[in-house]
Amino acid sequence: MHEAEALKFCEKWLTAWTGNRPEKLIEFYANHAFYRDPAKPHGIQGHDQIRPYFQKLLERNPEWVWTASKVFPTKDGFILKWKAEIPVGTRVIVEEGMDVVEVMFDKIVHNEVYFDQTNWLEAIREDKWI
């Protein structure tokens, strides 16, 4: 995937992470996609597992905003450096991280999310969010 193509994909995909629209977000993922993030360290596979996870995650974080900082194209997709602004109570936590994304036929088939969640976890504990 070329850099311009990856950035265009990211603009649409990252926008779908905001606003509690799990059905819009799941459209970016192939039916058999694999997804992993710090809360799901062993990963989950397929819409039947990913959809309920996204529903819960987006319901808890309807106002967060994700933006692409840098994209590194790979043979099968791209590596994305991102920034997330996550409202927690009266504060906004800014996190930075990266995703490894593989795309086939304009759908994500593999997505791994990596970031240090220390600040976010501290903020949500202080605000009794969890």
What does this structure look like?
The protein is of the alpha+beta class and 130 residues long. It has one domain: Nuclear Transport Factor 2, Chain: A (Roll). 32% of the residues lie in helices and 45% in strands. It is built from four helices and six strands, in the order H-H-E-E-H-E-E-E-E-H. It has a six-stranded mixed beta sheet. A hairpin with a 2-residue loop joins strand 5 and strand 6. The model has no long low-confidence stretch (mean pLDDT 92).
Secondary-structure topology with pairs:
Elements (H helix, E strand, L loop, with lengths): L2 H13 L6 H5 L2 E9 L2 E6 L1 H14 L4 E9 L3 E12 L2 E14 L2 E9 L2 H9 L4
Parallel strand pairs: 1-6
Antiparallel strand pairs: 1-2, 3-4, 4-5, 5-6
Low-confidence stretches: none
What is the global morphology?
Answer: globular
CATH class: Alpha Beta
Cα-based radius of gyration, to the nearest Å:
14 Å
Summarize the helix and strand pattern as letters: HHEEHEEEEH
- If you consult CATH, what is the topology? Nuclear Transport Factor 2, Chain: A
| Overall pLDDT score | 92
End-to-end distance? 39 Å
Number of strands: 6
* Proportion in helices: 25-40%
User: Could you say how many structural domains there are in total?
Assistant: 1
Helix and strand content put the structural class at: alpha+beta
